[in-house]
Q: What sequence folds into this?
């Protein structure tokens, strides 16, 4: 079983729509959670961390459900510039060498 | 800003050649990583290092080796390049202990084609 699983999509949504991605993880000892964004032919970049209480950064909201072992990313009022692949990342331990990446969810925002 | 610099963006090599991919970071990170990324397979860890001269195999180390002689530099070596090593190679670094918003910082990637 994969450590981290994501729906690969693609998600094609109109501008202004709200879209949500989910990601499940298998290791209940996982400690840190992140969403990364990767543009075509570019490197992944940290979008936001995911905190236990949930957190928001502008139009982006991240939530963690430890009981069900999933994290989510909600994007409100989608912009064309949000088109990218979103990677779910889970860190299993306290040290920075136990990251597991999902394969990514592709989002295209359509005018 | 944390900078992770990979020496080449695009590289074309012949089958059987020895290939060196270089990565340098300037934030005194303890951990450094080499991944390859292929369509549909996501990021796969090749090797990582948590200290100078230390290395650990990742999920797909076969056909690769690494070198970390200095803290800021982590090199990936393809001993004898093969066509199935055509891929995007990504270097990353991180602190030893993950705190708060710490995550990985990636280099801009090297797209290697083996012909």
A:
């Amino acid at each position: 079983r994969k450590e981290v699983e994501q729906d690969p999509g693609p998600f094609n949504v109109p501008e202004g729509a709200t879209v949500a991605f989910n990601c499940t993880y298998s290791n209940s000892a996982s400690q840190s959670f992140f969403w990364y964004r990767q543009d075509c032919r570019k490197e992944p970049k940290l979008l936001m961390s995911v905190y236990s209480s949930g957190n928001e950064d502008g139009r982006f909201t991240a939530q963690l459900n430890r009981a069900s072992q999933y994290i989510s990313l909600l994007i409100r009022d989608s912009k064309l510039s949000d088109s990218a692949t979103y990677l779910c990342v889970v860190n299993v331990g306290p040290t920075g060498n136990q990251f597991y990446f999902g394969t990514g969810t592709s989002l295209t925002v359509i005018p | 800003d944390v900078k992770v610099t990979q020496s080449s963006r695009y590289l074309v090599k012949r089958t059987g050649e020895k290939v060196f991919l270089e990565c340098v970071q300037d934030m005194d990170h303890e951990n450094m990583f080499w991944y390859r990324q292929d369509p549909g397979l996501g990021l796969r860890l090749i090797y990582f290092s948590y200290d100078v001269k230390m290395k650990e195999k990742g999920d797909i180390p076969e056909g690769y080796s690494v070198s970390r002689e200095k803290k800021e530099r982590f090199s990936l070596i393809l001993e004898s390049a093969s066509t199935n090593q055509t891929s995007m190679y990504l270097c990353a670094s991180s602190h030893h202990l993950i705190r708060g918003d710490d995550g990985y910082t990636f280099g801009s990637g090297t797209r290697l084609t083996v012909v």
In short: Chain A touches chain B at residues 8, 31-32, 34, 36, 41-46, 49, 87, 89, 91, 94-97, 99, 101-104 (CB under 8 Å). Chain A has a mean pLDDT of 91.
